[in-house]
Each structure stands twice: as structure tokens, then as C-alpha cells.
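Title: Request for sanity check on Beta sliding clamp prediction

Description:
We are preparing a figure and want to confirm that the structure record we downloaded matches what your pipeline produces today. Could someone re-run it with the sequence below and paste the raw C-alpha cells into this thread? We only need the C-alpha cell string, no images.
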Amino acid sequence: MKFKINQQDLMNAITIAMKAVSKSTNIQIHELIYFECSASSLSLRAFDGEISIKTKVDAVVDEEGEMAVKASLISNIVRKLPNDIVIIENKNGKISIKCSSSSFNLIAFDYYDKNDINIPETKPIEIANDILKRSIGQTEFATSLDETKLALTGILFELKEGYVNMVALDGYRVSLKKIKLDYPTDYEDSEYIIPKRSLLEWSRIVSDDLTTKLYKNENDLIFTSGSTTMQCKVIDKNFIDYRNIINDISETSVILDKRDLINSLDRAQVLSDPGRANLIKIELSDNVMLIKSNSEIGDVREAIDVEQKGNDLEIAFNARYMQEGVKACDSSKIKLNFKSSLNPCLIYPENSSYEDEDFTYLVLPVRLAN
């Protein structure tokens, strides 16, 4: 095996493959990147037991072949090479790496499982990467960290009535992104719980100007975009029926500037007590929202002008849960709907609602003492 490739091109491909390399494992195969040369391209493949990634890059191939190298080692070497042509050769288990005046010699590993990704011969779901990446960012933060509730550690990917609904919830809040999408009819009324990490890694790999094709393959999902493919297992559990949770019957509604609320919540947390779950109290009255927080070391009070419809209200929230949902809204102005101090708050972009093709965020209140 022998090939020549630009250092930056090789480093980019290694960085992509590294997303599927385990950082802490006793299984040697999960620490390796598998290289394969054929025709005029080089493919790199890695697998960590959860996700498998394969990416291709153009190269000048003098001799076809394959090899496996410890991922952290090859990454460190190539990163430190000058931006020049890299020549890599594998002969009898001995790897030679040359670039400009630098030269390395390594021992290749016996790669006993190539773990190739086979793309099904079926029509895929196609979604623009910029939309997919934004939707992942609007939902992933609301997944649960509790491994005993495995279904809630992933993001629900639900195909229904011409929409893809991406849903995350952790028992304290729900984040829902609805995407209008044309997809093959045989995907209608299907749903998959995709591990959060798989979607995050994919969003870090793909380019905004390309499209992701998504295939179902038994218990796995396969993502392809450009020259990169990722395979991940779905979470085989039942997701909570989020539709029974989101019930927008409001008696108080306010519209306000998104940035004003984010900044006020940020300042309100400066003196908050972590032991009280970053508790903030909101008082709505006469088109003014008061945000209050206090702890043993002091208190803070913020006032924001709002457009209020309906009753005055006092309610309390975990400030971080509220702030993360507000940040996820796309519009410069947002709408908050309340029913009472004991019912969830629903947050939307301005002029939007649960029925629209957009974003919905629900956050549960904290019960106030009398």
C-alpha cells in the first residue's frame, strides 16, 4: 500500500473518522482507524461500539492496500506535519510516513473487523444539513442524562403527516422542532430514537451547503452526506407521548424581546443558589415582567417591558431550563404562554404556535411556597 495526499486533506479526513474512535476502552479495535486505498481515493473507517464512520478523500494511489493505525497516534503525527504532500507506505506491517523533511516509522495493527457500512437499496429521507444541524441544536440540550431512562437520553425522530418532528424531553422540559419535509411514503408513521451523541457528532461533521440522506437498516440508521457515512444504533425503547404533555390552553400571554430575557436570566443567576436549582421568580403585571432571585449572599431584581394579554401571574422556574429554551428560539421576539403558577410555560417564536411548522419549548414551573 502506498499513497500521496495533501497534509490538510488527510488531517480533515482523520478528524472526521476520530468521531467514532473511543477515548476510553480496553477494546483495541475501537482505538484504531482503518485505511484503505483503491483507484484514486483513500477511505478511512472507525468504529467505537456505538457508531461507525467512513469517509473518503482524493489521493494519488501508487499501490492499493489497507492498514490499521492507532487513531490518537496517526492524528498527532499528521497534525504536526508541515502543510505539504504526505507519502504513506505500508510494507509487511511496517508503516512509513514522510512529509518534507519529516519521517516516521510505525508498526501496523492487525485489523480483524473492517466493519464496513452497507447502504440499503431503498429510497432515503433527505434533509438539508443546515436545517438538520439547527434542529439538532434546538433539541439536544433537553435530553435526559439519566441512563435508567434510556429512551429519554436520545432524540425522537418522528415522521408524521408530511413532517419530521424532532423531540427531546427529560421530565422537566420538552423541546420540539417541526420540519416540513417530503419523504418516501413507506416512512410515514415511523419513528426512531437516535442517541444524542450520534446526532451531535454528525452535526459537527457535515457541511451546511450539502444534504443528509437517512436510511433505515434493521436496528441501525445510516447517514450519508458528501463523502462521509455514519451508522448508528437506534434506542429500542418506547418514547413518552409528548403530545399529551403539550397542551396550550393559556390564560396569560406575553411577547417580549428574546435578547432582553436571555440577559436578564443570565444576570439573575449570578447570585442564585445551585442547591435551589437556580430558582427565579417571575411576576407579570401591567405589561412588566419582574424577574427576582435571592440567596444567602444577596438578591437581584430585573424588569422587562412586555406586551401582556390576560391575567397577572406569579410563577417560578429553574433559570437555566428557561434560558436554554429561550436561546433555542429563532426569532428576535418570543411569546410565552401561561395558564397558572402550577402549569407549564410554553415558549414559541413570535407569531408562532404548536400547530405551526416551527419550534415549541415547554418548561415545568417550580412550586412556590406560600
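Thanks, this matches our download. Residues 342 and 365 are 6 Å apart (CA to CA).
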